[in-house]
């Protein structure tokens, strides 16, 4: 089987730079990382210098993701030889045990780390992920809440908590977590959109209004967010179709819904620009919009 | 009294000015690595970390509270500021004032700081003064008063010499401060060779003696949060959004078939 460098005609420097880019962007393309990283460390380890350790860590985590336990073990052993007392390496050992589903041993590992260093956030987060992997959502939620009481600024944790709450259908608390995220990242349109979706799911006139506003905000932050555009259309038409609203609110919402529908049509026209089936797809969009209208039963 | 322009021997430039620059620079780099070797890890206290994050969250609430709905904002403000149950009112941290004289870790830190920074400066300054004495190095481009003469013209006892002509010691001190930007270029930001930052720290004094008192920090956050009003940024978001068509630039690639 030809090696990657021959197939794609890349040198080892490009492979190393690619790995660094994936590391910085936090991409989870584990199979690619495993392919590129395995070749890099087996053939070019000496040329990498001090970079090799962080590449070992990156490849090991990707290998665990792809169930490549052999590769993970080799990487871990190299790291353990070089950094025998490191908490970071201990965490990787724990992760490997988690991957092998030896959760009790992994827990013991993490407890040992926490005894030496109570501020180590990585170990605590791994313990919570163990609970999640075992399906114990209520305990996971409880532990995560305790964690967040002490480390209020950890945005990854807030996001994880909001996901857990959504799975448990506790939308009020999920909205709280997303509000924290929106405050710390006011320009991130994805948090606005997720918050709006949670509010829409909660239902009720106030929440629908909030949902509509936050869909609009998400669109303002990023004009190309189609999901927010559809969300705006849905929430506006939902409010307009409700019998309990005043005439002015109804009129406003019909206007918003009409605008959103027009924008959706425009977007699909743009998409089908080079396409011969142009007219058919636009008609399909219009029909879809009509069918999405909320009718009172 | 503008004296006649002196013409200096060009070998002064080659053998004095440039060597002083190099000496200062390399001593600075050496200092940076030595202090990195000698620095000890600061043990982080869980409570301190937690407190600093809480303060950060409160600050974020003040600044970006306008992006969340009114009720949520007030809920959080109530959590922090309520008269009986609010976090800032309820939580009092025990503050142990750290006496810099008796606290051993502070003492060793201070000693290390002095050793790596002040001592080399004095030594090198003195050596340069001794080695390169008796002649002027350069002329500062702006006129100086006569009071600067004894300071800048060590070892030269000419009454009629313009105060703008300086000796090697002053060129050394000029270098120490001037090479700061070079250090940040080469060693990256926040390097230990940065003399003036350390001197600034010493002047503020309290920053070195003890960590900022958490109770005071809580009180000031409480006051700041009390006065904040909620001005919802999303009041008229739909009108603003629908004022113009959406810009779908680049959302679809032209060759989509």
TrEMBL record, chain A:
InterPro entries: EMC2-like, TPR-like_helical_dom_sf, TPR_EMC2, TPR_rpt. Pfam families: TPR_EMC2. TPR repeats lie at residues 155-188. SUPFAM superfamilies: TPR-like. Its main location: endoplasmic reticulum. Keywords: Endoplasmic reticulum, Membrane, Repeat, TPR repeat. It comes from the Eukaryota. It is found in: Endoplasmic reticulum membrane. The keyword Membrane applies. Residues 90-199 form the EMC2 TPR-like domain. PROSITE patterns: TPR. GO terms for cellular component: EMC complex. Belongs to the EMC2 family. Part of the endoplasmic reticulum membrane protein complex (EMC) that enables the energy-independent insertion into endoplasmic reticulum membranes of newly synthesized membrane proteins. Component of the ER membrane protein complex (EMC). This is ER membrane protein complex subunit 2.
Automatic annotation (TrEMBL), chain B:
SMART domains: DUF106 (SM01415). It is found in: Membrane. It holds the Pfam family EMC3_TMCO1. GO terms for biological process: protein folding in endoplasmic reticulum. Coiled coil: none annotated. It is a multi-pass membrane protein. It comes from the Eukaryota. Keywords: Membrane, Transmembrane, Transmembrane helix. One of its GO terms (cellular component) is EMC complex. The chain crosses the membrane at residues 12-34, 118-138. The keyword Heme does not apply. The keyword Metal-binding does not apply. Belongs to the EMC3 family. Component of the ER membrane protein complex (EMC). This is ER membrane protein complex subunit 3. It comes from Poecilia latipinna.
């Amino acid at each position: 089987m030809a090696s990657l460098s021959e197939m794609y005609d890349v040198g080892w420097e490009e492979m190393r730079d690619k790995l660094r880019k994936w590391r910085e962007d936090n991409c989870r393309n584990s199979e690619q990382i495993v392919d590129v990283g395995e070749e890099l460390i087996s053939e070019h380890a000496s040329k990498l210098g001090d970079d090799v350790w962080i590449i070992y860590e990156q490849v090991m985590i990707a290998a665990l993701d792809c169930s490549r336990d052999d590769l993970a073990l080799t990487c871990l052993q190299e790291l353990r030889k070089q950094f025998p007392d490191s908490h970071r390496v201990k965490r990787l050992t724990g992760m490997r045990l988690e991957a092998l589903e030896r959760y009790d041993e992994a827990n013991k590992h993490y407890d040992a780390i926490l005894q030496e260093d109570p501020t180590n956030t990585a170990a605590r987060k791994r313990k919570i992920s163990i609970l999640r992997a075992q399906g114990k959502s209520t305990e996971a939620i409880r532990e995560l809440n305790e964690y967040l009481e002490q480390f209020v600024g950890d945005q990854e944790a807030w996001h994880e908590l909001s996901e857990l709450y959504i799975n448990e259908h506790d939308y009020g608390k999920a909205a709280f977590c997303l509000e924290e995220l929106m405050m710390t990242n006011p320009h991130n349109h994805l948090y606005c959109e997720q918050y709006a979706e949670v509010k829409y799911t909660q239902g009720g006139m106030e929440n629908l209004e909030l949902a509509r506003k936050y869909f609009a905000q998400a669109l303002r932050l990023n004009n190309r967010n189609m999901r927010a555009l559809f969300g705006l259309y849905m929430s506006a038409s939902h409010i307009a179709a409700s019998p309990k609203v005043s005439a002015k609110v109804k009129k406003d919402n019909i206007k918003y819904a009409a605008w959103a529908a027009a924008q959706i049509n425009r977007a699909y026209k743009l998409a089908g620009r080079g396409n011969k089936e142009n007219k058919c797809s636009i008609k399909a969009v219009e029909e879809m919009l009509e069918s999405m209208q909320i009718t009172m039963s | 009294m503008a004296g006649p322009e002196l013409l200096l021997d060009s070998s002064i430039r080659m053998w004095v000015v440039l060597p002083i620059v190099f000496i200062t620079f390399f001593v600075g780099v050496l200092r940076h690595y030595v202090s990195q070797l000698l620095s000890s890890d600061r043990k982080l206290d869980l409570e301190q970390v937690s407190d600093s994050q809480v303060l950060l969250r409160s600050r974020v609430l003040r600044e970006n509270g306008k992006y969340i709905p009114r009720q949520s904002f007030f809920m959080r403000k109530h959590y922090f500021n309520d008269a009986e149950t609010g976090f800032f009112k309820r939580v009092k941290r025990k503050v142990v004032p750290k006496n810099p004289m008796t606290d051993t870790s502070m003492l060793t830190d201070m000693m290390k700081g002095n050793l790596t920074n002040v001592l080399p400066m004095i030594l090198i300054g003195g050596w340069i003064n001794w080695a390169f004495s008796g002649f002027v190095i350069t002329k500062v481009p702006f006129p100086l008063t006569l009071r600067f003469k004894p300071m800048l013209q060590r070892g030269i006892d000419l009454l009629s010499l313009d105060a703008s002509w300086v000796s090697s010691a002053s060129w050394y001190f000029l270098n120490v401060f001037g090479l700061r930007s070079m250090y940040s270029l080469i060693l990256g930001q926040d390097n230990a060779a940065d003399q003036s930052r350390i001197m600034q720290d010493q002047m503020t004094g309290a920053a070195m003696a003890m960590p900022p008192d958490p109770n005071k920090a809580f009180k000031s956050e409480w006051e700041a949060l009390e006065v904040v009003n909620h001005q919802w940024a999303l009041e008229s978001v739909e009108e603003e959004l629908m004022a113009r068509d959406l810009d779908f630039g680049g959302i679809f690639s032209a060759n989509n078939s």
